[in-house]
């Protein structure tokens, strides 16, 4: 059983910063991709950023490039999302995700709310 536990969400003013963390546990494929998605009310869930287990590849949504940074600590099976220069449109529930085996194995966290006030 794979579990993803997120932390770090909250309320912040526009221009502020937050750091999200997601710790994975259980039987996890050694070669995997961890990432963050978000879903705002009335919108579909969208990719924010992801990173390979080697750390050699990162991928960002255009809307967060230059403001958000994804990183990971493989020894702790933890992925981080540093979010700077936050905007009200970043308000959403942020979900941690991990997949491997060509997406044959996909797991989600429970989500953490990020609210950016103007």
Could you explain the architecture of this structure?
The protein is globular and about 40 Å long. Strands 2, 4, 5, 6, 9, 10 and 11 form a 7-stranded mixed beta sheet that branches. A 4-stranded antiparallel beta sheet has the order 1-3-8-7, with no helix packed on it. Helices cover 0% and strands 55% of the residues. It is an all-beta fold and 118 residues long. A hairpin with a 4-residue loop joins β7 (68-73) and β8 (78-83).
Summary keywords:
four-stranded antiparallel β-sheet; globular; single chain; mainly beta; 118 residues
Distance between the termini: 40 Å
Low-confidence stretches: none
Secondary structure: helix percent: under 10%
What oligomeric assembly is this protein in? single chain
How can the largest sheet be summarized?
7 strands, mixed
The beta-strand count equals 11
Number of helices: 0
User: What is the overall silhouette?
Assistant: globular
Percentage of residues in strands: over 45%
Structural class: mainly beta
What is this entry, summarized?
With 118 residues, the chain is mostly beta strands. It is 0% helix and 55% strand. Strands 2, 4, 5, 6, 9, 10 and 11 form a 7-stranded mixed sheet that branches. The protein has a 4-stranded antiparallel sheet with strand order 1-3-8-7, with no helix packed on it.
Produce the secondary structure layout.
Blueprint: E1 3-7, E2 10-13, E3 18-25, E4 33-39, E5 46-52, E6 58-60, E7 68-73, E8 78-83, E9 92-100, E10 105-108, E11 112-117
Parallel strand pairs: 2-11
Antiparallel strand pairs: 1-3, 3-8, 4-5, 4-9, 5-6, 7-8, 9-10, 9-11
């Amino acid at each position: 059983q794979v579990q993803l536990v997120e932390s770090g969400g909250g309320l912040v003013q526009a221009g502020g910063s937050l750091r999200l963390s997601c710790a994975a546990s259980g039987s996890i494929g050694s070669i995997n991709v961890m990432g963050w998605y978000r879903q705002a009310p009335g919108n579909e869930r969208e990719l924010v950023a992801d990173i390979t287990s080697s750390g050699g590849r990162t991928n960002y949504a255009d809307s967060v490039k230059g403001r958000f940074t994804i990183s990971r600590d493989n020894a702790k099976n933890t992925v981080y999302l540093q979010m700077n220069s936050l905007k009200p449109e970043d308000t959403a529930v942020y979900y941690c995700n991990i997949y491997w085996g060509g997406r044959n194995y996909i797991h989600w966290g429970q989500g953490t709310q990020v609210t950016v006030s103007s």
